[in-house]
Recover the amino acids of this structure.
């Protein structure tokens, strides 16, 4: 029961971080927030007893994808125009 | 409060509700389906070694033995994707070694690189026994290079003895290891005149070819799983690194 409660709390956190990333005008902050969301998803995978998928999530979705986004951001402006 | 805000709030709330329903409403907790039962009983059952894969981590056995073709094609899809990125971004710009690095920066960066690479290799090799695998190790290997690229500069990569051609070669070497191991049983069966499958790992009653299941004293090797994982690690790690290096090079070309 505690585990299911914790998983639900993490899902709430996940949705909140995604919403913040979508609404953030600072694109670098959005990249960092989506990275944080990836970490939360990795913890979820770990709680659902899939530690190897958690490893992929941490290394590919948080590490490599965030680095690619930061690189793409160097070619754009940092702040989104309204 | 305009209509757009309301729609957005409704969208996020429904997304959240779907996620919670997926968690609470999942009906099968504590119930193993027949296919899962087969894997649970047979993937690590030495007394009935017809179906086992000699790997204590059943998941790695599943990935490279029971569903070997699936992983093989996945690896090939990743290879082709990275090749497409390379064709798209290729510029014949050699990596120049930057001179402004002090010795402390160089030494600490090399130390960090060694730590991350060791983690990648350990996660790849011990995927036979604990959770891990070739793709995970490969992404961590790529992170070792990407951290150096982001934190310092691409002029630092020559200090680590890596350039674009070498990354290409290592990537192809990874694929050659995988395909060679997949075709070894076929070649063996053609020479010896017995039955064997492509990507066969352990001997079956009707096809006696098999890779050795033990390394030394009763230490399970998983047959061909460790070299296959190493091949995938090299392929994935160098693919990511190559894409990243080429992206940074393209940018420099445009600035000039």
């Amino acid at each position: 029961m505690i585990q299911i409660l914790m998983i639900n709390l993490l899902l709430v956190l996940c949705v909140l971080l995604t919403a913040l990333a979508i609404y953030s005008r600072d694109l670098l902050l959005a990249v960092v927030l989506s990275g944080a969301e990836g970490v939360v998803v990795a913890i979820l995978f770990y709680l659902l007893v899939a530690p190897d998928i958690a490893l992929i999530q941490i290394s590919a979705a948080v590490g490599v994808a965030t680095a690619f986004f930061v690189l793409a951001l160097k070619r754009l402006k940092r702040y989104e125009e309204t | 409060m305009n209509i757009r805000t309301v729609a957005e709030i409704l969208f996020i709330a429904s997304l959240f509700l779907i996620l919670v329903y997926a968690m609470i409403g999942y009906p099968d907790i504590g119930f193993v389906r027949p296919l899962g039962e087969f894997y649970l009983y047979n993937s690590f059952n030495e007394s009935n070694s017809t179906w086992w894969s000699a790997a204590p981590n059943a998941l790695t056995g599943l990935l490279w033995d029971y569903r070997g073709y699936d992983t093989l094609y996945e690896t090939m899809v990743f290879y082709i994707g990275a090749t497409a990125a390379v064709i798209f971004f290729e510029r014949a710009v050699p990596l120049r070694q930057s001179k402004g690095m002090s010795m402390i920066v160089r030494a600490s960066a090399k130390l960090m690189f060694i730590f991350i690479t060791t983690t990648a290799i350990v996660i790849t090799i011990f995927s036979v026994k604990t959770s891990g695998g070739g793709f995970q190790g490969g992404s961590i290997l790529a992170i070792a290079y990407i951290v150096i690229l982001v934190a310092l500069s691409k002029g630092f990569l020559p200090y680590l003895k890596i350039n674009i051609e070498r990354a290409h070669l290592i990537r192809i070497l990874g694929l050659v290891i995988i395909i060679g191991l997949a075709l070894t049983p076929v070649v063996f069966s053609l020479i010896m005149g017995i039955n064997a499958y492509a990507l066969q790992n352990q001997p079956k009653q009707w096809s006696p070819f098999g890779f050795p299941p033990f390394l030394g004293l009763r230490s399970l090797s998983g047959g061909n799983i460790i070299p296959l994982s190493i091949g995938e690690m090299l392929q994935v790690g160098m693919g990511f690194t190559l894409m990243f290096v080429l992206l940074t090079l393209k940018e420099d070309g445009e600035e000039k």
Notes: Chain A has a mean pLDDT of 87. Chain A has three helices and no strands.
